[in-house]
Design a protein that fits this description.
The complex is a heterodimer.
Chain A (H helix, E strand, L loop, with lengths): L2 E11 L5 E12 L4 E5 L6 H7 L9 E9 L2 E2 L5 H10 L1 E4 L3 H4 L6 H11 L4 H14 L4 H4 L9 H13 L5 E5 L7 H18 L2 E5 L3 H7 L2 E6 L2 E7 H6 L4 H8 L39 H5 L1 E2 L2 E3 L3 E3 L9 E2 L2
Parallel strand pairs in A: 3-8, 3-9, 6-7, 7-8
Antiparallel strand pairs in A: 1-2, 1-4, 4-5, 9-10, 10-13, 11-14, 12-13
Chain B lengths: L7 E14 L9 E14 L3 E6 L5 H8 L7 E6 L2 E2 L6 H8 L1 E4 L13 H11 L8 H11 L6 H5 L7 H14 L4 E5 L7 H18 L2 E5 L3 H7 L2 E6 L2 E7 H6 L4 H11 L3 H6 L9
Parallel strand pairs in B: 3-8, 3-9, 6-7, 7-8
Antiparallel strand pairs in B: 1-2, 1-4, 4-5, 9-10
Helix pairs in contact in B: 3-4, 3-6, 4-6
The chains are: A alpha/beta, B alpha/beta.
Amino acid sequence: MLAEVSNLAVAFPEGPWSWRRVVDGASLSVAPGEAVGLVGESGSGKTLTALALLRLVPEPGRIVGGSVRVDGVDVLAAEEAVLVRLRGATVGHVFQETALALNPVRPVAAQVGEAARLHGHATSAIERLVDELLGAVGLDASSMRRAFPHQLSGGQRQRVLIAAALSGSPALLVADEPTAALDAVARDEILGLLDRLRRERGVALLLISHDLGAVARSTERITVMYAGETVEVGPTSALLAAPLHPYGAGLLASLPTTGAPGEPWHAIPGRPPRPNEWGRGCRFAPRCPRVFDRCRNARPALVTVDGGRAVRCFLHAAAAETDG
Amino acid sequence: MASAAPSVVLEARSLVREYPARGRLTGGRAATVRAVDDVSLHLDRGEMVGLLGRSGAGKSTLARLLAGLEPADRGEVLLHGRPLGAAGVGPRGARRRAVQVVFQDPGAALDPRQSIGSIVAEPLVVHRLVPAAQRSGAVAALLEEVGLPGDPAFLAGRPGRLSGGEKQRLALARALACEPEVLILDEPVASLDASVRGQVLNLLEALRGRRQVAMLLIAHDLALLGRACARLAVMAAGRLVEEGATGTVLNTPRHPETIRLIGAAGTGSVETKAREIPYLRPEG
């Protein structure tokens, strides 16, 4: 595996003497060249899990459990110097808030050049590299030398960030909600760009998104998170055809295309629990249509089942409890 | 142009809204951008109309014009055939109150320091809709209508601790306090988690049926609009480029922008993917 997170736990201070786990039981893997979708609701821990790949969990958060391996490196035990090398050169991040991730008073081509410089490219080579990277993401290099972020559309800014992330020639591109702020046409174009970069450069993709359609289109495998833990993993087509976890089934039923005009909309009752509302049992139990006694009293473990799939649910024959 | 049939509640006639655009892209010259360019549109009583278009097409500006939140440079907005008044109280204010807007980000639209009860009560007080003695009962009834608790403890709380879906319900309760005839919903579920979107959409549908409110639903999600709306309007570069019954627009689109939007929405459909072996679609 190129990147592997196992049973990750991340905690934030809740008061002077207490910590609250906001991620607890997150597992994720990405093989070289593979595209993996990380799906879940806001607050489910998707972004923190992806940041943990490079030990970038924001202060005052702490990684308090589990393991993270990237390109053979034990990330949680690694020296800072090793992590600096991994950041950008092995894993490149593209963030959702394009307006915040770019400096508003510098032309965008210069910002891609700055990223290239940080990744150790020689000054003499940077101009050509920037032209090549901007071309690769479908932008005109000469106009980008004069353009400031506010003059670009959301889709164009997203392309600039992807170009900057590619400047370290990463083996894995982490794209955190790259299409959430875009309209349908720009969304389609950015997903097409990510697909093409994978084909042409062999870069692996971790696509973090609450947009099931985007993940369906552009990934081979899906990891579903709910309330800080991984609840299901499987090949994209198999998982979307028949999710094993009732949460995934509820999400699919909630899509606008599941149902005809005039029919009531499906929704999972209630709302996702906040970390201080996680009980001792399954975290989805209060909203689950198939809940039974055991779900309320014990927490299921993430167990491997046939077909390269894994699920955290007592409905499955292989189900086991976790002491976590 | 829309006819003045009795069922028409809100009618926009040839609306134009221009903004100054100055900067490098115009070579430093003063110029204007037509955010809304000669748009005519009507909403019938109790009808849900979908408005789609790319970012920057002018959807949100049109929404503000329809609600009287900003003036049109040309054209007019008619409520029951009479011009929509400016903001305020009195007879013209009462007409403007009849058109309410609910925005995408419910958190930003709610004052974090105000109690939930006073957020809903404010329009009742400002527009003198309910005598003081009956106000708390009216607030509780409005909250219960949108599926929130109406008890005193909930009314005393602040909006900060509510989930996104609960905040959007609260924003709807405040809009309903104005006894609107038209609700303009600008991406009302886009910021909500997928598993709870249906709760808010069902609520909108129930309000439409019960109160016969006309609704203009602005959204990027074509599948959502296609299912929720009987009629669709498409905007591009400030203009209304296509309008018609939902089935007609989606099955036989005529304007290139409509065709483009439908094409973009069609890729990445979960149903398609589930039937196929993993694939990568070439960039179109």
